[in-house]
C-alpha cells in the first residue's frame, strides 16, 4: 500500500474514532425514565355544570337530599378530576452534573368523581365524571450530583396533548310511568379541551443499582386547569321499566334531541338574542367552563442512562 493510501486510511480511522468518542459522550448525557403512580385530587374547586339544558335538578358540586317533610340537606362535594392512575415515559438530557432537562408523556386514567346529586320523594338523580387523556410535561431538574442516593427537585409545565372528560348522568323516577312502571334516564356527555397549560413540581431521589440503572421515587404536585372547548351528549335514552323488562320511551331518545340540545360550544365572549329563540339545528354557545385537574401523589419507576 502506498504512503498516500496509508495516510488516507489513518486519517479515516482517526475521524471514525473521534466520531465514536463524540457519539459516546453525547449518548451518555441522555437518559430514559419509565414508571407510574397514583394521584389524589388537590386544590378542590366547584365542578362544571354537567346539565346546561336544565333537564335535571342537579346543582354542580352539591348533594341535595329533600326528605318527605320538605327539609333539604345540602352537602358540598367540590373536588378535581386530577386523581387517578398514571403511566409516564420521560426522556432527559444531562446539561451538567447538577442540571438536566426532561420531556415526559403522561397517560392519566382518572378516577370517577361525583359532580352532583339530587334526591327527593319523587326521583333520584346523579352526575359523575372522569378524565382520560395524555399530558406533556417539560421540566427542569436540579440535583447535587451525588454518586450514591441522589435527591433532586423537578419543576416545569403541564400541557394538554389529547384527552376527554366523560360525564355520566342518571335519573330514576320510581312509578314515573304509572303504578308498577319506573322511568330511568341515562346520558353521557363528552367534553373536549382547548390547549391548556399548568404547572408541576416534584421532590424525589435516584437509588442507583449500577452505573446505568437506577430506581426513582418522587412526590409530585400538579396545578392544572383545563379550558373546555366543546361538548356533546353522545348517549341519551329514556326507558320504562316494568315487570323486569325495559322499553324505550318514544320521543325521548338521543335522535329526538335537537342539535342545540346536545352539542355545545364553550366561549368566554358571545352574543345571544333576547328576542328570538336560537336555531335548533346548530350547536349552542354557552359560557366557558374550566375543568380542574389538580393533583398530588407518588411516582415510582426505572431510570436508565445511555
Structural summary, described in words:
The chain has two helices and 17 strands. With 306 residues, the protein is mainly β. It has one domain: Porin, CATH 2.40.160.20. Strands 1-4-5-7-8-10-11-17 form an eight-stranded antiparallel beta barrel.
Helix/strand layout:
Layout: H1 3-27, E1 30-41, E2 62-66, E3 72-76, E4 84-96, E5 99-110, E6 113-119, E7 124-142, E8 150-173, E9 182-193, E10 197-208, E11 213-223, E12 225-242, E13 245-248, H2 259-262, E14 263-267, E15 284-287, E16 290-292, E17 295-305
Parallel strand pairs: 2-6, 14-15
Antiparallel strand pairs: 1-4, 1-17, 2-3, 4-5, 5-7, 6-7, 7-8, 8-9, 8-10, 9-12, 10-11, 11-17, 12-13, 12-14, 12-16
Largest sheet: 8 strands, antiparallel, barrel
> Can you identify the CATH class?
Mainly Beta
Strand order of the largest sheet: 1-4-5-7-8-10-11-17
Task: Give the count of structural domains.
Answer: 1
Shape: elongated
> Low-confidence stretches at least 5 residues in length (pLDDT < 50)?
7-26
For the CA atoms, what is the radius of gyration?
Answer: 28 Å
CATH architecture: Beta Barrel
**Strand tally, please?**
17
Distance between the termini: 39 Å
- Beta-strand portion reads over 45%
Topology-level CATH name: Porin
Indicate the percent of residues in helices.
Answer: under 10%
Report the total helices: 2
Mean pLDDT: 90
Helix/strand structural class: mainly beta
The SSE string, one letter per element, is HEEEEEEEEEEEEEHEEEE
